[in-house]
Amino acid sequence: MSEPPEDWWPEVRPDAARRLMAAAVESFASRGYHATTTRDIATAAGMSPAALYVHFPAKSAVLFAISRSGHERTLQMVRTTMAEHDDPVDAMRVLVERFVAWHAKRHMIARVVQHELDALTPEDHQVVLELRRATENLVRDLVTSGVDAGVFTVPDVRIAARAILSLGIDVARWYSPTSKPAPEVLGKQYAELVLSMLGHGVRRREPH
Amino acid sequence: MSEPPEDWWPEVRPDAARRLMAAAVESFASRGYHATTTRDIATAAGMSPAALYVHFPAKSAVLFAISRSGHERTLQMVRTTMAEHDDPVDAMRVLVERFVAWHAKRHMIARVVQHELDALTPEDHQVVLELRRATENLVRDLVTSGVDAGVFTVPDVRIAARAILSLGIDVARWYSPTSKPAPEVLGKQYAELVLSMLGHGVRRREPH
């Protein structure tokens, strides 16, 4: 179910930078950020330590590139989904499907990004926190628009938005390449649970 | 909102062992398990490295003691809650309130336990996985009993149980001593969201 590492960052150029980021994810995941050296990353990517410095000034810059890319793509996905769907129920369903499938497929990256937030420099951390806030605000707006339209009922919009994101993010903690169901199926099941959580009455029952 | 470390493991004796566990949580949380030495832990607890070995044979034994205690107490809480409440709705409400408040209050321990699962020895890891499975099975049984009683409607009992636990566990990821609302209030709000997620129609609205 996992994608090959070279597909993780289609936007990153050149290939060498992408290969270093993939090698870093695997090293950070297996031995932790602090115990990983730039030499470990370079070696895992089949390069010399000097070659790493051509692309990244420091180990934390590799971590930041991984973290920023993940958060930017999530924000972009949420924006795109909301632009594609006027109906809050449709938008929420598709958003959760995509968000959950994303975290299931890229569970290794997401885990590294979560665990090592504190290892970012304060400036880099700030960038990531702002991307998170932007994503959370959009989800909150979507819950609010559903409440305003009378299709969602929640005790607290802020807590509901937090819970929706939480459900998706936590998938990365427990999902593994042998987990069932497949990321897209899990996404559909979670979307149904979330709509129900938001007090949306219509419950679809589809075979899966 | 956080409890003082000495209250984290009321069942652990002697005090020195409890102090070492608290020092280990803070060290693992701040610099990661791999970068922490037994000397760091002993020093943080105001002891000599030799004194640590009186209580724990190795660094991983401290981690295991922390992890086992957390998982045992969670399992015990779920068991107690289910024994106290015959009604599946009441049992689920109280279970989520307690589970969420627990993860909010002890977010630092819960984070260490989650992040460093892979650092346990295979035997210790197995013990923890079995405690988790036992907890998850109880939650699944509770969802099933609600479905059988006609008060819950879910597309998939296993996925619903996973989502309930996931929501609670992920609280430890984002909760901090400055977070709002207070752990118990968050627990009540999440309980309401979970009952709704489980298709339970009655929605209580209480001022908070």
TrEMBL record, chains A, B:
One of its GO terms (molecular function) is DNA-binding transcription factor activity. The keyword Oxidoreductase does not apply. Residues 14-74 form the HTH tetR-type domain. The keyword Cell membrane does not apply. Residues 37-56 bind DNA. Keywords: DNA-binding. SUPFAM superfamilies: Homeodomain-like, Tetracyclin repressor-like, C-terminal domain. Gene3D superfamilies: Tetracycline Repressor, domain 2 (1.10.357.10). PANTHER family: HTH-TYPE TRANSCRIPTIONAL REGULATOR RUTR, HTH-TYPE TRANSCRIPTIONAL REPRESSOR BDCR. This is TetR family transcriptional regulator. It comes from Actinophytocola oryzae.
